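ENCODED BACKBONE
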Amino acid sequence: MTSPVHLFDLASRQSQWLSTRQATVAANIANANTPGFKARDVEPFSASLDKTKLQMTATSAQHIGFDGRTVSASKVKKSDSWETYVSGNSVTIEQELMKSGEVSRQHQLNTSIVKSFHRMIMSAVGGGS
């Protein structure tokens, strides 16, 4: 038997992951002039989801089946920093700012999804507008 997916728990976990990634990006920027500092990043959130082994559930025999064995995962190569300076520092401010913008967009999407589901739930129970 499969367990239900709790959207709000999943959104909370992604929010925590985004917070960790933003702190990592901020640390990279703060150490942009530190000799020998190597830029860091966190494992993608999708890797965390892959470890949970969520399965799709059909509620009707007429639903189209999904066979997970036909999907093959491919490893994405982790790119290093765009350049490494003479000091051995690998932080590129432009690259870190792009990561920061990506985190911000993902956080906005996460928040929008949670708000939408909250409105839907409140509407279903008759407490929302």
